[in-house]
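User: Could you write out the 3D structure of this protein bound to 4-nitrophenyl phosphate? I've included everything you need below.
Assistant: Certainly. Input first, then the structure.
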Amino acid sequence: MTSILMVCLGNICRSPLAHGILESKLPKEQFYIDSAGTANYHVGDQPDHRSIAVAKTNGIDISQQLGRQFKVSDFDTFDYIFVMDHSNYNNIIDLARDSSDIAKVKLLLEIDERIENKNVMDPYYGNLSDFEAVFQLLDRACDILSRQLQSDL
Ligand code: 4NP
């Protein structure tokens, strides 16, 4: 089993989308996907209603996900930890215990060489079209990631 964690700040907008999108592209028997936030603002909350709506429009149900905060033991549980922006990266690296923890953490958009800005913008204070743009960005990155992960097996 390969395990992958998607991380953003609140775990209600970006990482639940990345979690649902990647899960939809990989066989469940071989890949465990989860998401978490660096902050504890939305522990136990459903994803933002706009993330749920945009996912649903694109055929993915993320409504059953519940927010949780990243914990140090996630470095042991997960093979790969993908963060949405540089601020998430710094927050997670601050919790790393050693070089093997650090090596697991990557900016998700590093995988898509066509994208120059490696930050997935936070749509929380934006509108539905910002959420749709985030979905498209994540969908492309997860497409590349799912192909790479399956060719690594
Ligand atoms: P996310 O967006 O990190 O993509 O889940 C945010 C959600 C909530 C907050 C900030 C960002 N907040 O400040 O509550």
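The chain has six helices and four strands.
User: Perfect, thank you.
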